[in-house]
Amino acid sequence: MKKKTTIYDIAKRLNITAATVSRALNGNSKISEATRKLVSETAKEMNYEQNKLAQALKSGKSYNVGVIVPRIDSNFFASVIRGIEEELYPHGYHVIICQTHDQKTLETENINSLLNAQVDGVLMSISNAQNGNDDSFNALIKKNVPLIFFDRKKDIKGISSVTIDDFKGAYDATKHLIDQGYKRIAHLSNDRSILIFKNRYLGYKQAILDSGLEFDESLVIETHSKVLEGRKTMKKLLEMKHRPDAVFSSSDFTALGAIQEIKESGLRIPEDISVVGFSNEPFTRFMELSITSVDQSPIEMGKLAAQVFLEEVNNDKRVKSEKQVVLTPELIIRKSSLRTPITDKV
């Protein structure tokens, strides 16, 4: 097995001290530019690799950042991660991705693993767990590890977040349905102990009330963000004596399930029932019956979350400066909600 090159090997080659090699490789200004260049070129020629762990111990930075999401098999979270990586990579950071699958125990394990890995910060979208994970969040805070929430957040003093205006997104979606002439609008909600789903419910409800329509709580059903759950929930709504004539879903996946069930029942979309989703997943625009949805600007959300992290981690004074960044959602109107033909907006 070939022996790894050390700074002592480089020092011997150049007839200088190992300390000088070390300082040169670390960009010490006390070492002349010519020497730094010579050491760097020699190190490259000899296939020398710096000890990342030693560098981390010396600088106090690992240049690793943890990103925790409920799941990565959705375009939304994958796009947020892309935005985070695009913003952090130029600054020398690497991203460690963890999934919670909406389970509190996995969320706790992920946070503990990232702490043990000495990450420089954690960017996360919290799980759907009914009970909070305050102990794990406090562990990050006590160790002065920057914690940034995105999309799903928990209100903790001093902790920054990047979200969209879920209330407005839901309000605009519901108002659009009302403007199209729909009057009995159902809402496929999700766990409303999670702030984003609570706000989407409140936005939907306020749009109904502002329009002068009667708000009917029986048209609101809490379900999970899965296609099969959308089908099951829509089946219940279609069995009602006075079924809805439109559906606003807090998730595109649930909306897709609802559409499948509506079609199977023989009803037409949007003539008999209209459907609007939330998140603007890629499939919503590529289907033959394209789905109206609320776009959340996930790449921009990821970039902004990363920027907030960089501001915190580079703050030499370590003065906590809480930021609450709220993006404006955009309603993308397509065939599933319009009674008059349009050219889809991608």
TrEMBL record:
Q: Where is the HTH lacI-type domain?
A: 5-59
PANTHER family tied to this protein: HTH-TYPE TRANSCRIPTIONAL REGULATOR GALS, LACI-RELATED TRANSCRIPTIONAL REPRESSOR
The UniProt keyword set, sorted, is: DNA-binding, Transcription, Transcription regulation
Q: Which Pfam families match?
A: LacI, Peripla_BP_1
Q: Does the keyword DNA-binding apply?
A: yes
Q: What is this protein called?
A: LacI family DNA-binding transcriptional regulator
Domain of life the protein comes from: Bacteria
Task: Name any one GO molecular function.
Answer: transcription cis-regulatory region binding
To which species is this protein native?
Answer: Aestuariibaculum suncheonense
Q: Per its UniProt record, what Gene3D superfamilies does this chain match?
A: 3.40.50.2300, lambda repressor-like DNA-binding domains
